[in-house]
Amino acid sequence: xxxxxxxxxxxxxxxxxxxxxxxxxxxxxxxxxxxxxxxxxxxxxxxxxxxxxxxxxxxxxxxxxxxxxxxxxxxxxxxxxxxxxxxxxxxxxxxxxxxxxxxxxxxxxxxxxx
Length: 114
Known about the structure:
By secondary structure, this protein is of the alpha/beta class. The protein has helices spanning 3-8, 13-16, 22-29, 42-46, 61-69, 85-97, 108-112, and strands spanning 17-20, 35-38, 54-55, 77-80, 102-105. It has one domain: Rhodanese-like domain (Oxidized Rhodanese, domain 1, 3-Layer(aba) Sandwich), CATH 3.40.250.10. It has a 5-stranded parallel beta sheet. The longest helix is centred in the C-terminal third of the chain and has 13 residues, at 85-97. It is globular and about 30 Å long. The model is unreliable at 1-8 (pLDDT under 50).
């Protein structure tokens, strides 16, 4: 954390984004009452996804922004993609949009489906 953030209490992106292991992620979404989002393409989503996830394609910028604007920015958003790369980029985008807590699945759906 930078000295500026320490002095003025502003949370940086890294403070708002957490990456969880498959086991911790599974435990966190277990109740099903979470904002669970698959940021892969519709085709990838149709080939398999985590139960209860909604699909918001990272590459469809207009739809991405409009869809996330409908979610609660004060509640945690649980993201995943295929490997973890897109979801990390999506997490940064969400923090810039004002989301307070973004949780990412380490290794993405590839890790989940193993």
